[in-house]
Write a structure and sequence with these properties.
The chain is α/β, with parallel strands linked by helices. The protein contains 18 helices and 17 strands. The protein is elongated.
């Protein structure tokens, strides 16, 4: 079909009295096409009117489209039951042409950002080979919207703690922060609401306030609003992660920073400059970092178990063995596990990232070989007995050897007997028990009672008042 300009040229040449043959030869078209245009007398391209096989079924298609909730596969099945012989491609083509269930896409638009105005943050799941194992990773990215400077890191999961760690590293990499951080309504930052009604979690709002920026979220479905950070994820997947292997998570993130350095320095044909060159103009407009940036950490409270370890994230980290049974404050930072006894740092370990059931033990946290447990002094009951009666030392030592464990219960019973009964009968009974090797404290108590029965438990004689009256 001839386009509008070609039809206009035919009519213009005909007005100049050129023959049909000359016009056809000059424009490289057939004489029949020239005759048709001259006969129509209009440069407007006529619309094609084609008979559509689905047109007789329009009402049924509209009805089934509503009943099947817009599922064209089900619509095709239902109208087939009604007798329609349409193919599925014919049905979908008819729906597209007639605007049934298909709305024209609005233009994406273009956003202009001043230097230091906005930075965009988002995450995307990918797969990477770490430690010889292909595993899922969460790729976190932050992009400065004006210069397109990019910073990425990899994480096994992406929690609120990981988000603060990542943003701190990214702002340190850029040397500052833009005044607005656009996010994709992620639950890590959002407390409630979406888009302009989004309310951030107080913890994250306070974090942004510390560094001079505020979180904002784009409207649901408006992914183009965060295109600066959405676009590079395919680039990351097919460039940075493609064909690369990493020894561990630390090595992966070191390589990610090196990749960002190279890509930010490369010339971009789209930007007509490198990202580093554009960043030179944006850098002075960023919010300066505070003079002190506190290290992000996740706080835990753990009791040192019987083996001298604390459990963090399904991994065990050793603590000094003298602290067994004590409650410790454990701080989980980006790369370290720090154990505090009150305000004092007592242990530091390399954090195990993306691992489970790993035991990390430092040699200085265990007692020297052969030392064993520290010797424990005599029980308090023994000290009280010997202080009151030093002559009981041999019997007390023999009683401890005869009793179970440390003999604390037996010594406590003997101390009670000494306090409850007169001293002399008690000592006499103990000497006799020592002579015969008697350690049954119930029997010793009965022997003491037998000695003092006539002195302390004699009942007065009852008088018979009736007999006295008779006399």
């Amino acid at each position: 079909m001839l386009d509008q300009k070609l039809r206009a040229a035919i009519l213009a040449l005909r007005e100049k009295k050129h023959s049909i043959r000359a016009i056809a030869r000059a424009l490289g078209i057939s004489r029949g096409a020239v005759r048709d245009v001259i006969a129509s007398g209009s440069e407007k391209v006529p619309s094609l009117v084609r008979e559509q096989a689905a047109e007789p079924w329009r009402e049924q298609i509209l009805e089934q489209y509503a009943l099947c909730k817009g599922n064209l596969v089900r619509v095709h099945e239902e109208i087939g039951k009604l007798g329609a012989t349409l193919s599925y491609p014919a049905l979908t083509a008819f729906c597209r042409r007639e605007g049934i269930g298909a709305e024209p896409k609005p233009p994406a638009g273009r956003y202009h950002f001043e230097p230091g105005e906005e930075m965009q943050h988002d995450t995307s799941p990918h797969k990477a080979k770490i430690g010889g194992v292909l595993c899922k990773v969460q790729t976190a990215s932050l992009v400065l919207c004006h210069s397109r400077m990019i910073f990425i890191q990899l994480y096994p999961t992406f929690t609120r703690f990981d988000c603060k760690v990542f943003l701190t590293d990214a702002m340190s990499y850029f040397g500052g922060a833009a005044r607005r951080c656009m996010i994709d309504n992620t639950h890590v930052v959002v407390l409630k609401g979406t888009g302009k009604h989004m309310v951030p979690v107080p913890e994250m709002a306070a974090f942004g306030e510390r560094y001079g920026f505020a979180f904002a979220a784009h409207e649901q479905g408006d992914a183009n609003r965060s295109a600066r950070v959405e676009g590079p994820f395919d680039w990351i997947d097919n460039n940075f992660l493609a064909g690369r292997e990493f020894a561990d998570w630390l090595h992966a993130n070191q390589q990610a920073i090196a990749w960002c350095d190279r890509k930010n320095a490369e010339h971009s044909t789209k930007l007509h400059a490198s990202r580093r060159e554009l960043f030179a103009t944006e850098r002075p407009h960023l919010v300066a970092l505070p003079i002190w940036m506190p290290e992000v950490y996740l706080l835990h409270h753990r009791i040192v178990d019987a083996e001298g370890n604390v459990n963090v994230g399904c991994n065990r980290y050793s603590a000094p063995w003298r602290l067994i049974g004590r409650l410790m404050e454990v701080r989980e930072t980006k790369n370290r596990i720090e154990i505090f006894d009150g305000p004092r740092l007592v242990a530091t370990h390399q954090r195990q990232i993306g691992a489970h059931d790993v035991w990390t033990t430092l040699p200085e946290h265990r007692p020297p070989r052969g030392q064993g447990r520290p010797k424990v002094g005599p029980p308090a009951e023994e000290q009280q007995l010997l202080k009151a009666e030093p002559s009981l030392a041999d019997y007390v030592a023999a009683l401890r050897r005869h009793a179970h464990g440390r003999g604390t219960l037996a010594l406590r019973r003997l101390l009670r007997l000494m306090r409850d009964y007169p001293r002399e009968p008690f000592l006499t009974t103990v000497r006799r028990a020592e002579q015969y090797g008697l350690f049954d404290l119930d029997r010793i108590e009965r022997m003491v009672l037998q000695q003092i029965a006539h002195d302390y438990f004699v009942l007065p004689v009852e008088r018979d008042d009736k007999d006295d009256d008779d006399e």
